[in-house]
């Protein structure tokens, strides 16, 4: 498998560019392959998400634990990583952010997923290679699950109230 085969061949013009102004979700990507990490970051940013990326599970846990970090909505984690696995990093991050949605990705089969105790039935899974549009769709579907959608509406209400309060002060 080559680096360029991780993402299915798709012309750059087909990268999702529609930004949804109501999207304020933050996605933490943990992927050891810099090329894949950069493409996933660019794809999700172009779709309107705020993205934080890391190259190791340990780094991702550190970013999630940073007191300055406001909220992380989705963890997009490669299963096989140097150091701690994506599954182990996800477990640690979920202790910090109990409502985080988890989307694992891998180019390996079921045997490797079982070896790394990856709970893909309780989370989401994205098989490599994937298209940029496929990545955005998986993230959107994960965020549109009922309790996540309700939390998003609550966040929008808070932001609207804050905006109205600030405009009255000014």
Folded structure, characterized:
This protein has seven helices and five strands; from the N terminus they run αβαβαβαβαβαα. It is an alpha/beta fold. It has one domain (19-169): 3-Layer(aba) Sandwich (Rossmann fold), CATH 3.40.50. It has a five-stranded parallel beta sheet, sandwiched between helices. Helix 2 packs across helix 6. The longest helix has 24 residues, at 146-169.
Question: How would you summarize the topology of this molecule?
Answer:
Elements: H1 3-6, E1 26-30, H2 34-46, E2 50-54, H3 57-65, E3 74-78, H4 86-96, E4 101-106, H5 110-115, E5 124-127, H6 132-143, H7 146-169
Parallel strand pairs: 1-2, 1-3, 3-4, 4-5
Helix pairs in contact: 2-6, 3-4
CATH architecture descriptor name: 3-Layer(aba) Sandwich
What is the name of the CATH class? Alpha Beta
Element-by-element helix/strand order = HEHEHEHEHEHH
What is the average of the pLDDT values?
79
Strand order, largest beta sheet: 2-1-3-4-5
**Low-confidence residue ranges:** 1-19
How many structural domains are formed by the residues? 1
Using the coordinates shown, work out and report the CATH topology.
Rossmann fold
Main sheet makeup: 5 strands, parallel
Assigned CATH superfamily: Response regulator
């Amino acid at each position: 498998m080559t680096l360029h085969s991780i993402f299915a061949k798709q012309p750059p013009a087909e990268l999702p560019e529609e930004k949804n102004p109501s999207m304020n979700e933050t996605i933490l990507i943990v992927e050891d392959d810099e090329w894949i990490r950069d493409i996933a970051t660019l794809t999700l940013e172009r779709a309107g998400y705020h993205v934080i990326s890391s190259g190791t599970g340990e780094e991702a846990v550190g970013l999630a634990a940073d007191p300055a970090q406001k909220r992380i909505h989705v963890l997009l984690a490669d299963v096989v990583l140097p150091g701690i696995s994506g599954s182990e990093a996800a477990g640690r991050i979920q202790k910090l952010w109990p409502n985080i949605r988890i989307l694992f990705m891998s180019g390996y089969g079921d045997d490797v997923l079982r070896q790394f105790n990856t709970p893909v039935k309780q989370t989401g899974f994205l098989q490599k290679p994937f298209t940029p549009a496929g990545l955005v769709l998986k993230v959107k579907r994960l965020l549109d699950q009922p309790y996540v959608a309700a939390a998003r509406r609550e966040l929008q209400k808070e932001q609207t109230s804050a905006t109205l309060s600030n405009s009255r002060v000014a």
